[in-house]
Amino acid sequence: MQRRVGLSTLAVLLGVVILAGAAGAAWQPDKPIEFIAPSGPGGGWDRTARGAQKVLTEEKLVPQPIVVNNVAGGSGAVAISQVMAKRKGDAHLLLAMSPALTFTLALGRAKDPATGKNLTFRDITPIAAVATDYGAIVVRKDSPYRGLKDLLEAYRANPAAVSVAGGSAVGSQDHVKFAKVVKAAGLDATKVKYVPFQGGGEALASLLGGHTVAAAPDISEIAGQVEAGQIRILAVLSDQRLGGVFKDAPTAKEQGVNTNYILWRGFYAAPGLTKEQADYWRETLGKMVKTPSWKKLAADSGWFELFTAGEEFSKFLDEDLTFASTLLKELGLLK
Fold first, then answer.
1. Residue 183 lies in a domain
2. Number of domains making up the chain
3. CA-CA distance, 205 to 212, in Å (whole number)?
4. How many helices (H) and strands (E) does the chain have?
5. Torsion sign, CA atoms 3, 217, 75, 314
6. Among 166, 177, 235, 297, which is most exposed with the fewest C-beta within 10 angstroms?
7. What is the mean pLDDT of the chain?
8. Of 255, 284, 319, which residue sits at a domain end?
């Protein structure tokens, strides 16, 4: 299944900037701010939270200090459940988000502590998407697998022999990346031997330590390892080849596997914020993505331009959740 690209989704990849709310909202933070990365150190959520912290601080876009805390568990389920239980109405808190959270919600792994019902994006306060990223399939530099087809042939012969590390739970983002590739190659995606970790950093450590055969990281998680010559990219899951340190990495499509995996990166807040509080963060992040500091950070991280906020972002998230549920059913990961 290929992701539908429409006006409300990836038109923003072409640089459309949607700012929500009235300019100059009166509210602003009056005590220290907390950003939560719902994973361990080194993964995409961690890099998103710490990157925004760095730029917002350096550019003096917020009047208070920002601290980043890691709250790992359940591919975002632990963090969102804590917010629902203890932080409603807290406008001094933002949490990093991506499609990994979408899959967590689609699988019904995040519950409202008060009611026990499955959470959706309408139960929180979506703020903005600030960048986009792509998935990849990688192996160690000394791996016998030279290309994607080599790995898929090994999978065809014995799926259990191809262990795949990822920084999200079973049925979530990194699992889905590899499952999409397998399905697009005409193989049985329900047999993927996926090994979950609490973040991308742990997953890459498993790969580099020889504990798993392959990994399905985000492009932004592996720039350092690519430059250091530690890993080989078998395929980037973009429609065209990327630039920079990834310029020599082939796409899955050019190797005959017609699939992609596009990731958005953004932030959400607790439920119960006032319009002025939510608008403050949407406008502040909108200013952030225009700064040279952010543009450099994004380029260095392997991120690409994207900004969408407000109701447009909320509608996009609703569509993303519907898409995730459909895809998980197609891959045999959701009944």
1. yes
2. 2
3. 9
4. 10, 11
5. negative
6. 297
7. 90
8. 255
Are residues 267 and 129 located together in one domain of the fold?
yes
Structure tokens given for 54: 């760095």
- Domain-embedded: residue 335: no
pLDDT per residue as tens digits for the range 110-143 = 999 999 999 999 999 999 999 998 999 999 999 9
**253-293 tens-digit pLDDT:** 999 999 999 899 999 999 999 999 999 999 999 999 999 99
Q: Is residue 44 located within the same domain as residue 109?
A: yes
Measured at the CA of 101, the angle between CA 96 and CA 106, to 5 degrees, comes to 160
Residue 92 to residue 331: CA distance in whole angstroms: 39
Q: Which of 229, 227, 232, 198 is nearest to 215 (CA)?
A: 232
8-state DSSP, 147: S
CB contact burial 290-303 (16+ within 10 A = b; e otherwise): eeebbeebbeebbb
pTM for the whole thing?
0.78
CA 89 to CA 111: how far, in whole Å? Answer: 18
* Spatial contact of 270 and 83, defined as CB atoms under 8 Å apart: yes
E-assigned strand segments in 141-212: 163-166, 193-196
| Last residue of one domain, picked from the residues 191, 226, 255 | 255
CATH label of the domain that carries residue 236: 3.40.190.10
pLDDT at position 194 over 70: yes
Q: Lay out the sheet containing 193-196: strands in order across.
A: 193-196, 163-166, 214-215, 136-140, 231-236
- Domain of 140 in residue numbering reads as 136-255
